[in-house]
Amino acid sequence: MSTDVSTNTTVPPHPGGEKTPSPGTPVVRVLLDGVRRNMRQYGMLFALGLIVLLFQVWTGGDLLLPRNVSNLVLQNSYILILAIGMMIVIVSGHIDLSVGSLMALVGGVGAVLMVEHHLSWPVAVLLTLLLGAVAGALQGFFIAYVGIPSFIVTLAGMLLFRGLTEIFLKGQTLGPFPDGLQKVANGFLPEVGPETNYHNITLLLGLGLAAYVVFQEVRDRRRRREFTLEPLPTGLFALKVTALVSAVLVTTLLLASYKGAPVVLLVLAVLLVGFGYVMRNAVIGRHVYAIGGNLSAAKLSGVKDRKVTFAVFLNMGMLAALAGLVFAARFNAASPKAGVNFELEAIAAAFIGGASMSGGVGTVLGAIIGGLVLGVLNNGMNLVGVGTDWQQVIKGLVLLAAVGFDVWNKRRAGA
After folding, report:
1. Residues 78, 323: contact at Cβ < 8 Å?
2. H helices then E strands: how many in the chain?
3. What's the pLDDT at 225?
4. Which residues contact 85 (CB under 8 A, 6 or more apart)?
5. Cα 168 → chain centroid
6. For residue 138, how many other CB atoms are within 10 A of its CB?
7. 245, 340, 377, 412: which has the fewest C-beta neighbours closer than 10 Å?
8. Rounded distance, CA 23 to CA 116, Å?
């Protein structure tokens, strides 16, 4: 206890020996403190905005043309699907090198079923998704129950699945796919309602998504207070919500002024909301974070780590199968060379989106943001005529910078 000289009364010290901020603390200082505390969470979102602004200026406004925004969604849909599953795998403390080859295998098997055996495409889709789940489950069994490191198991899977693809397709490209499946990968939502200058369904979906974003952010802020966790400062929270809603509405208007929302965008939205809810609120989601953050402590807490790891790789197999079908249907053919290096793109998207090498850190939304960063880089550099050689160099530097930022942030937090 310390004594206040002017009033001769005792004043309790502030916990940790720090001074309590006075009521007159400048708003700017409070906002900057909030930014520093949440830099890891929102840094890449801010970087995505800067990249979009840079290429919008560099391309003379071509980046955000309605047609190009639709192409961005279609061109990166399969990578974003992979990135969602890869983020969950990395959060659990593992890695999966086989997803690109599994994509090719699923596309090849689907092509054989639909093109050569004339199986209806909905049945073929269900069978190929089941094939992906079985492939993921087999890898999960060897990792979780046999104890072989995920790097080795999925490296073997990468070689195995690629070889099986060559066998199924006999080294040749096979197509075309049925029109119904092509519409899922390349089609747009139908136009309904009165004649306007915009796509009505897309506008309604965009407004609904904006309302959901506001509801979710307010709900998360209230829950943090209920659990006595420090929320964002009010000014920074308002700025975050405004930026998110603005991004949703601008994207909605751009899509609605062309052909509307692509069908695959709805698939991505369902995956984002569904897996986001599971990782935030479901028991298995918390267990995935637990085993990735501290496996020994998770075991002592009663977490069934083997079952969780098995489920993580089964899920990754299903998402790789879905991405493989979308990729094959988009190009209307299955190829033995499909999916080459796609596992690296998915891993890069996860790390750029905030995943940690040590596991236990990362979000599904972060994976989407990381995938969008790579997608905008690819699209923007193509528009300005940057060669593929320099594109690889730039993407490598972006990945290195993202991981370096993660390491720096950890050291700063530890200090």
Report:
1. yes
2. 16, 2
3. 86
4. 96, 99, 315, 316, 318, 319, 320, 346
5. 31
6. 16
7. 412
8. 74
- Give me the helix-helix angle, 121-141 and 150-169, nearest 10°: 150
Any idea how long the chain is? 415
CA dihedral 314, 177, 167, 157 (to 10 degrees): -20
* CB 255 within 8 Å of CB 66: yes
CA distance 80 to 11: 55
145 residue type, one letter: Y
Please tell me the predicted confidence (pLDDT) of residue 194: 81
Tokens of 219: 């709900």
CB 296 within 8 Å of CB 122 = no
**Single pTM value for the model:** 0.88
401, HSE (Cβ side, Cα atoms, 13 Å): 11
From 77, 247, 101, select the one nearest 165 (Cα to Cα).
Answer: 101
d(CA 330, CA 350): 23
CA 67-73-79 angle, to 5 degrees, is 150
Radius of gyration of the chain (CA): 24
ω before 176 within 30° of 0 (cis)? yes
The number of angstroms, rounded, from the C-alpha of 53 to the middle of its chain's C-alpha atoms is: 21
The pair of structure tokens assigned to 124 is 């073929």
Q: Which H or E run includes 368?
A: helix 364-383
According to the model, what pLDDT value does residue 70 have?
A: 94
Low-confidence ranges of the chain (pLDDT < 50): 1-24
**From residue 389, how far is each of 375, 383, 393, 395 by CA, in Å?**
16, 15, 7, 10
Phi, psi of 151 (to 5 degrees): -60, -45
